Structures are given as C-alpha cells and as structure tokens.
C-alpha cells in the first residue's frame, strides 16, 4: 500500500490500514515505510486516534477527530 507522492493528510484508507496492522503489533517505522511518510506522523496519528472508551486505535474515531480539528481551524467568512 505504498503511495507515489505524499499528501498533507492521511486518508481513511490509510487509517484503516494502520488500524488493521496495529492489531498485529506492527511498528510506527514499518507503517511509515509502507505509507511513505514520517514515523512521527504515524505516532501522532495513533495517539490522536485512540478512543476514550478503549485504548485501541480506531480508524473511524481518528477520521472524526481529524474532521473536527479541520473545522476548528478554518477561517471565518467575511460576508
């Protein structure tokens, strides 16, 4: 699942890939090599994507948190 060029944000497919292989115990460095991004990107993603109810990374929870963060930093419209 290697990407050709690196975008600024992880997609839901990439988050699902992290979730499925995270259960198997894969490391952040391995994920980074597979997705073509920095290991720190993966570690931050895993930290942000852990649900409050359980301490397991969930792709859906991570995607929802991403959308909330994106909406919070948008500029207010002038008109």
- Put simply, the count of helices is 4
Task: Give me the count of strands.
Answer: 0
Query: What is the first-to-last residue Cα distance?
Result: 43 Å
Low-confidence stretches: none
Q: Please, what is the average pLDDT?
A: 83
Q: List SSEs in N-to-C order.
A: HHHH
Per the principal axes of the C-alpha atoms, what is the gross shape? globular
Output the radius of gyration: 14 Å
Name the structural class.
Answer: mainly alpha
Share in helix: 55-70%
Taking the sheet with the most strands, its summary is:
none
The fraction of residues in strands falls at under 5%
Question: What layout of secondary structure does this protein have?
Answer:
Elements: H1 12-23, H2 28-35, H3 39-48, H4 59-72
Helix pairs in contact: 1-4, 2-3
In short:
The protein has 79 residues and is mainly alpha-helical. The protein has four helices and no strands.
